[in-house]
Specification:
- The protein has about 375 residues and is α/β, with parallel strands linked by helices.
- It folds into 2 domains: about 300 residues, Rossmann fold (3-Layer(aba) Sandwich); about 55 residues, Alpha-Beta Plaits.
- The chain contains 14 helices and 16 strands.
- The strands form 5 sheets. The protein has an 8-stranded mixed β-sheet with strand order 4-3-2-7-14-15-1-16, with helices on both faces. A two-stranded antiparallel sheet has the order 5-6.
- Strand 11 and strand 12 form a beta hairpin.
- Helix 6 crosses helix 10.
- The relative contact order is 0.18.
- The model has no long low-confidence stretch (mean pLDDT about 95).
Amino acid sequence: MSKVCFASARAKKWKYEDSMPGKLEILLKEFHVSNYFEPREWVAVKTHFGSEGAHRIVRPIFLRKVVDALHSIGAKPFVTDTVRIKGLDYLEVANQNGINHLSVGAPVILADGLYGHDNLMVKAGEILGEIAVSSVIHDVPAMVVCSHIKGHIQAGYGGAIKNVAMGGVSSRHRDCGWKCGRGAMHTLGEGILSWDKEKCELCYQCMEICPLDVIKFVNEELQWDSNECWRCGRCERVCQSDALSLPGNDDRFMRSLAEAAKAVLSTFKANKVIYINFLTEIQPECDCMPVADVPVIQDQGIMISDDIVAIEQASVDFLLKAAPLPQSVIEEKSIVSGDDILLKLSEKPYHIQIEESERLGLGSRNYELIELA
């Protein structure tokens, strides 16, 4: 049975050791990171840099504690993510959100280059076939996956599996484009964006949120460059009049997340990846969006494990027991205590990604929770 170590977000003593940074330090010591990483070994600290306006990411102080723990055993860490918007812009977003060399104590780099094209094709399974894994994550010998737990309009739940699957894969490949990148998970078939002019309110949110500026309006007509589009789906997600749609399938998407995660993790040897889930500032939407709504669940704490399936199941179990927070989207959805909050928010079968990851051999949903005293 896999072990999941947990430290509560509650602070019951006026001591540093009872703070969340202090508890993370203790968790990392008790987890014995030296069992996984070696002196002088390069270690990727994989996180999400957030977006301009989306600030509820894994805080830099926590990334710093992870980096310090790796430095303490002589390892050589760096903090990384794959390109989500144009590379230079994304590095600036990371800096605005407090993630830089000075704050985290290690280099901050893009895992697939400034243009998001630096990747290698890796076998990925029945749905995806092959997928473009970022070159840095493909080549680095070890990794710590730091995931912000939250809701997600498409995945329902965003945790370590989504962080590895979407965050370890590039948006597109030099030759086969988005169909070999994370866009293959987002959409079906040719991934053709459809626009309903009658429903469109000309709010231009879709144009403003597009990371590649491939959407334009000319004489109140939408124009879309299908060759340059990454199929990230941001335009569809922000359309509040249902005028835009990309073809998709919830079941296929959840299973493709598991396949992509397996592809990314297949580039590592055994016992070279550990996972830290931050159950904090649990907002209803992904960190990719241009805003961060107020949390829907109170901070729960921090988990650490070497089993991606176990830590995801443990995280979900905590969320299922948590009470919904007032003065949030919870009230608009009429969600009450005892409801599956994330399921009610997104109406997406998020549990499939965890079940499929277990079926593919990435870990076990059976776990032993070891709580920090």
